[in-house]
């Protein structure tokens, strides 16, 4: 998919949301060369009534193979 996006002229891609407490998912996206672009504070309400942030994952396609 990333190769195809680059062929279409995209310069970067964003994986929409990873919840901040999901460390396994955040590690996986970082392993795939994505970086944390920013966060949406209090994006989701958890069952205990507290809120957690959502992290936006970004990858530049410039110079990648």
Describe this structure as you would to a colleague:
With 65 residues, this protein is α+β, with helices and mostly antiparallel strands. It has one domain (2-60): Aminopeptidase (3-Layer(aba) Sandwich), CATH 3.40.630.30. The protein has two helices and three strands, in the order H-E-H-E-E. The chain has helices spanning 2-7, 23-31; strands spanning 12-19, 35-45, 51-60. The chain has a three-stranded antiparallel beta sheet. The two termini are 12 Å apart.
Secondary-structure element string: HEHEE
According to CATH, the fold-level topology is Aminopeptidase
What is the CA-atom radius of gyration, in angstroms?
14 Å
Number of domains: 1
Shape estimate: elongated
Structural class, judged by helices and strands? alpha+beta
Q: Outline the biggest β-sheet.
A: 3 strands, antiparallel
Task: Say which CATH homologous superfamily is assigned.
Answer: Gcn5-related N-acetyltransferase (GNAT)
CATH class: Alpha Beta
Number of helices: 2
Q: Which CATH architecture would you pick?
A: 3-Layer(aba) Sandwich
How much helicity do the residues have? 10-25%
């Amino acid at each position: 998919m990333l190769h195809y996006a680059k062929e279409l002229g995209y310069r970067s891609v964003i994986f929409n949301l990873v919840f901040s407490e999901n460390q396994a998912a955040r590690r996986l996206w970082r392993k795939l060369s994505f970086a944390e672009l920013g966060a949406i504070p209090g994006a989701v309400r958890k069952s205990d009534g507290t809120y957690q942030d959502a992290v936006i994952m970004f990858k530049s396609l410039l110079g990648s193979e």
